[in-house]
Amino acid sequence: MIREFNNPELAPRNSFHVAQRAARLIEFDRTEDLQELFEKGMPDP
């Protein structure tokens, strides 16, 4: 499964709990999902 988040808070996702946000974050449950995305080429910004 692939999940996309727009403007997520990153503190719960990093070991230093730095209060930052990302414009876009994509999470992958399976390695195969990530490999499939890379095989398609660069995503649009």
Explain what this protein looks like in three dimensions.
It contains one helix and two strands. By secondary structure, it is an alpha+beta fold. It has one domain. The protein has a two-stranded antiparallel sheet with strand order 1-2. It is elongated and about 35 Å long. The model has no long low-confidence stretch (mean pLDDT 89).
> What is the count of distinct domains?
1
Question: Helical region count?
Answer: 1
Helix and strand run: EEH
What is the SS-derived class? alpha+beta
Q: How many extended strands?
A: 2
Q: Distance between termini? A: 21 Å
Q: For the residues shown, what is the average pLDDT? A: 89
Largest sheet: 2 strands, antiparallel
Beta content: 15-25%
How are the strands of the largest sheet arranged? 1-2
